């Protein structure tokens, strides 16, 4: 299949894609599932991963009308890729009609060898980020009325206790177990 557009990663266009491999994996439970229950609820899909081997060159041939030749093009393009990686934002990758959204760059390998001359062969690894949407719902919470008194029960209920005789200052009566123990042995007054 002939590509109508150069392969791109977040706006960065490659001269040629040599190899592209897609990995799709999942976690399957290792414990037994009872007969009659659906196993599909327990299979957890992992993010899709791509490994791309691409070439960028100082004198592009494939997309020469879109990319001008320059003696520093490879260095400029590698720096653009480095900046894209440093942004740490999900990007889209398109190649030969396929499109992958929310891809994060996990690694870039850009070796420079004598054999490559004025080009470089890049290896880029991408992992797809799962982005979920949130939904808000109003939930009416009512406390169950308890016993014959029909008073609220549950966490919203404040207990009221009275001390016999006089009302004590709340600050004076509340203390931690550690503080009470220290007072008992005479460390605090």
From TrEMBL:
Pfam families: Dit_like. Residues 150-174 are annotated as: Disordered. InterPro entries: Dit-like_N (IPR048494). Residues 14-137 form the Dit-like phage tail protein N-terminal domain. Residues 156-166 have a biased composition (Low complexity). This is Dit-like phage tail protein N-terminal domain-containing protein. It comes from Faecalibacterium prausnitzii.
């Amino acid at each position: 299949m002939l590509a109508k557009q150069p392969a791109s990663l977040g706006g960065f266009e490659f001269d040629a894609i040599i190899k592209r491999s897609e990995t799709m994996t999942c976690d399957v439970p290792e414990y037994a599932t009872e007969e009659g229950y659906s196993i599909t609820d327990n299979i957890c899909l992992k993010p899709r991963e791509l490994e791309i081997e691409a070439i960028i060159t100082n004198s592009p041939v494939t997309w020469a009308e879109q990319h001008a030749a320059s003696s520093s093009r490879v260095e400029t393009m590698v720096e653009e890729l480095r900046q894209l990686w440093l942004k740490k934002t999900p990007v889209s990758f398109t190649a030969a009609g396929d499109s992958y959204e929310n891809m994060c760059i996990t690694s870039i390998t850009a070796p420079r060898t004598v054999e490559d001359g004025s080009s470089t062969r890049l290896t880029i690894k991408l992992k797809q980020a799962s982005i979920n949407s949130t939904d808000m719902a109003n939930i009416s919470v009512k406390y169950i009325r308890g016993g014959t008194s029909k008073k609220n029960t549950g966490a919203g209920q404040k207990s009221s206790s009275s001390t016999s005789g006089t009302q004590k200052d709340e600050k004076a009566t509340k203390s931690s177990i550690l503080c009470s123990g220290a007072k008992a042995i005479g460390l605090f007054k």
